[in-house]
Each structure stands twice: as C-alpha cells, then as structure tokens.
Specification:
about 40% helix, single chain, six-stranded parallel beta sheet, alpha/beta, globular, 16 strands, 18 helices, about 525 residues
Length: about 525
C-alpha cells in the first residue's frame, strides 16, 4: 500500500522511497500536505509569468520551499496555513484569475503525483534534481534575506525552476536547468557569505570547548546566526550560558558573536544523535532550522522551534522572536549541578572552527610554498551532511588514514565524525581545518579557484580530492554547484541519491567522474596512485 511518496533524502526507505511513513519521522498525511504545498508553489511560480512578484511573494516562496526541506516541519496545521498564504499571494498577483469567465488553468496548482508517477524516469530524475536543489537554494536565500540581503537573479530563477517542474519539457531542456540550479546556488551562497561576514565579521580560527559549565543553559541548533544573535542579546546578564549544537558550531568564530562572554561552547555532536544527547537535558533547546527529529517525551517540554521549523504540540517562538518562554524554561531547569565534561565522537574535549576562505587565503603564500617544497602533496575536502545510516564511519576512517603530507578541509555537520581528532600540522598549519557551515562550500570553492590560479592550472588539475557525504537538499544544491562549475573527480556517499535514474547517473559518471565511496583504504589507494 502506498500512502505517500518521498525520496528526497539519503535515508529514504530501501534506497528507493518512503511510501508508508518517512524514515525521518514524517507521517504520510504530512508528506502529502508538503506535496500540496509544493504544488501550490508551482502555481505561484506560474502566476509570476507576466506579473511582477513582490517581496511578499519572495518571502512566501522561500518559506514554502524551506518548509519542505527534510527534518524542518512536521506540523500539518502550520503547513496548511502556509498553503493558504501561497494561494493568497497568487490571488494578489492574478486577482482576476478566479473570476475569469474563460477557465484556462494556466495558474493552477500542480499535482505532484504527476511528477512522482512520471513514466519517464529520466524526466522525473532531472525535475527532482531541480526541485530538491531549489529547496536548498531557498534555505540559503532565506538566511540571507533575514539579514537584509537579496539577489533578484536568485529569485527570478527560483520562479523559473519551479515553473519548469509543472511543464512538459524534454531532457534537453531540463538538463540546462539542472546545471543552472547549481550556478544560481553559487551566487546564493556568495550572497549569504557576504551577509554573514558583513553582519558578524570575518570568522577567525577558534577553539571551542565541549564541556558544559554548571548552571542554567540554552542549546541553539540549526543554521540561523540572526536567531542566535537575538538570543544572546536577550540573555545578557541573566546568568544563562549559551551553547551551539550541530551546524551552529561555526558561530563561535564570528567576531561580533564572540563578544558575548556567555556564548560558552558546543553541546554534543551531529543532529542524528539528538535523541540520545537531549535525553533529560536540564536546559532548553532552540531549533532555528533543520535538523529536527520527532522529540521524545523525556525532553519534548524543553524543545522550542522558530521560523519555519515546527512540530505538533512543541513550543514555537513566533516571528517577533521574543525568547522569554525559552529563557524561563532554562532558568526553571537550572542546568547541571557541576560542570559536565562531554566529548566528541572520538573522545576529544574541544574542537576548532573558523578556517574561512579569508583565513586560508591569508596564508596562501605559505600553502603554495609548502606545495612547491613537497611538504604538502595533497588536499582533501571531506565534508557534507551527517546522518544515521550505517556506513558513515567511512569518513572518519578516511580522515584518519590520510597521509601526513596532506591537508584536510571540512565543513557542514559531517565533520562531527572526526572534528575532535588531532591529526597534526604542516609548517604551522593544522592538517584539519573546519571552514564552517554547509553554505561555506562557497569559501572552499574560492580556495580551490585561488590555488588553481596560483599554480596556473584548472581546478581539476590540482592535487585536490572532494569526498562528500550527503543527506538532505542543501547538499543537493551544492552538488549541482560543483557540476555547474565543471568540477570533476569526486567521491559521493554513503549511498547515491534514489532520485537519480541509472541513465542520469551514467551521464554524471561519464562527464564528471562522480564515484560512489567504497572503503577508505581502497579509495585512498586509488586517489594517491
């Protein structure tokens, strides 16, 4: 029996698709409502053809796409309200459409079942790449927008891409749109990079403790630096310490956020361990974005969501961002009675972040000299999303086995598999450098391009190998960015996306030399041979 269909994340059931309930915890009725929301967004994109979308239109489109990202919104009520907002926005763009005597269906919502049941699996695959890529783009555009930064080219393509989902287009029309999704995502990541750095300063290398000090505390997870900043402001002088979690770890490296002495350290590891790590936690937790897992009863009363993150019967902070309930809960719980020593996955008691592209490029001469002298023989970028599926220990095994004359760059939450390791240094440079959140892939690409220019070669000719882990749709748009830039020869795992058909996979392998990960030993031997 098929109650739903979803295959957008790496954990999808049987590596084919969730049909009874989502492995992520999403119920069938929620999945179907998210499909209805996506169909309404396609209708909204249709309505922008020949009409000028407003900032309100942009906001609704971003909210809708972000809501359908994996592990963001499980609340049928708020999804239904958002569908209504999309319809209201469409009515504002085409006010005479509903009363038109000649019904043409031009601006109708799209039935997502048409995509999921598309007979041509290659068409379905290409459209899925566009859709899931746009969900990732929308998340980055959302974060830039809340900081006051926008790019009309990004918005224009979101509408173009969403419109294409509902059109009967051949492969030769869809493939360029897939690559353009990656191109636009690069511009969107560039925009967010600018927004974060101009707002909070250029990140600097920062060592972050994993010990939780005694007393009241709040854990902030997700990606939204503005939410963290507002919470830091509202907790000044209240005797509450703030700890990051998951993708929020890089916040410690931003100078403006470092000014707050009660931003103390990092709690726990990656998102998929939250059920164990939040068990009876004596502090409150704020989810600003994904990844939210269905909370267990032994800690659900101390979970708070905000923005598009939502879960039934869980405390939600509205857009006015008054964090008083969150703060009061932390004070009520009281925190640990004594300092609690926590460790990373490998037993480390601290981690380091903040190796932004600016920091790395500031020592470019040192790096180039080390390469020319033979002290550095290879660069690895080992990063991406973490997840619960077996096989992800590949990444820690890989990093542990990288040769001593290599540098390992990392970013996103996949780094928690190994970011508490000390793998040494080369010429005063740490061999392991955390560049930040998943959107900081922009910075990694900048570094690669700068190195290629310094050595007067193409990026694909550098002694550089990308070893990527993926889980959700932001990883998809980053993958498409790499393809749009012509970057080749990288490894992807722990499994390949279920929504990529055999023919499309063959195209990617033949044209970009994308390889599935195998074992750390075998892949390293192949890379270094």
């Amino acid at each position: 029996m098929t109650n739903m269909f979803c295959f957008q994340c790496e954990q999808t059931a049987n590596s084919t698709g969730c049909t009874i309930a989502g492995v992520c915890g999403k119920k069938a009725d929620t999945a179907n409502l998210q499909d209805k929301l996506t169909g309404a967004l396609v209708g909204l994109a249709r309505a922008t053809e020949g009409n000028v979308p407003t900032m309100s239109t942009h906001q609704v489109m971003l909210d809708g796409l972000f809501t359908t990202l994996t592990n963001v919104n499980f609340n049928n009520e708020s999804i239904t309200e958002l569908i209504e907002k999309v319809h209201q926005e469409k009515d504002a763009l085409v006010p005479r459409c509903n009363s038109c005597a000649s019904v043409c269906g031009r601006n109708d919502d799209y039935d997502m079942q048409q995509l999921w049941t598309e007979a041509n699996e290659d068409i379905r695959s290409l459209k899925s790449l566009i859709l899931f890529g746009l969900r990732g783009v929308a998340a980055y555009a959302y974060h830039a927008l809340v900081l006051g930064y926008t790019n009309d080219e990004v918005f224009d393509f979101i509408y173009e891409g969403m419109h294409a989902i509902g059109q009967d287009l051949p492969m030769e029309k869809l493939l360029p749109l897939v690559l353009k999704t990656g191109e636009i995502n690069f511009k969107c990541m560039e925009l967010l990079d600018k927004a974060n750095k101009e707002t909070y300063g250029i990140p600097v290398p920062t060592t972050v403790p994993l010990t939780i000090e005694k007393g009241p505390f709040i854990v902030v997870t997700g990606h939204d630096l503005l939410d963290l900043h507002k919470l830091l402001e509202q907790t000044k002088g209240k005797g509450i310490n703030i700890y990051t979690h998951g993708e929020m770890l890089p916040a410690h490296a931003y100078p403006k956020l470092k000014e707050y002495p009660h931003l103390k350290g990092n709690f726990g590891t990656a998102w998929q361990n939250q059920i164990k790590e939040f068990n009876e936690i004596p502090g409150s937790v704020l989810f600003t974005t994904n990844c939210l897992m269905p909370p267990k009863d032994n800690y659900s009363d101390r979970i708070f969501t905000t923005a598009v993150v939502d879960f039934p019967n869980i405390n939600h902070i509205d857009e006015d961002k008054d964090f008083t309930p969150l703060i009061e809960k932390a004070l009520e719980l009281g925190g640990y009675q004594e300092d609690k020593v926590m460790t990373g996955i490998n037993g480390g008691t601290e981690v380091t972040t903040g190796f932004s592209s600016d920091t790395i490029l500031s020592v470019a001469d040192t790096v180039i000299s080390a390469v020319k002298s033979g002290d550095i023989k290879h660069f690895f970028l080992v990063g991406g999303c973490d997840g619960a599926r077996m096989g992800r220990n590949y990444y820690v095994d890989f990093v542990k086995q990288t040769p001593q004359d290599s540098i390992v760059l990392t970013l996103a939450c996949g780094k928690y598999r190994f970011n508490d390791l000390n793998i040494g240094s080369i010429g005063g440079l740490p061999r392991l450098m955390d560049m930040g959140q998943c959107n900081d892939a922009y910075g990694a690409i900048k570094v690669a391009i700068a190195l290629s220019e310094a050595f007067e070669c193409g990026v694909n000719d550098l002694p550089l190998t990308l070893v990527l882990s993926w889980y959700e749709q932001k990883a998809v748009c980053i993958l498409l960015t790499l393809l749009s830039l012509g970057i080749k020869n990288f490894y992807l795992g722990p499994t390949l996306p279920a929504f990529v058909s055999p023919n499309i996979l063959n195209f990617l392998v033949e044209n970009y030399n994308i390889k599935p990960v195998s074992t750390a030993e075998a892949d390293l031997k192949e890379i270094l041979s």
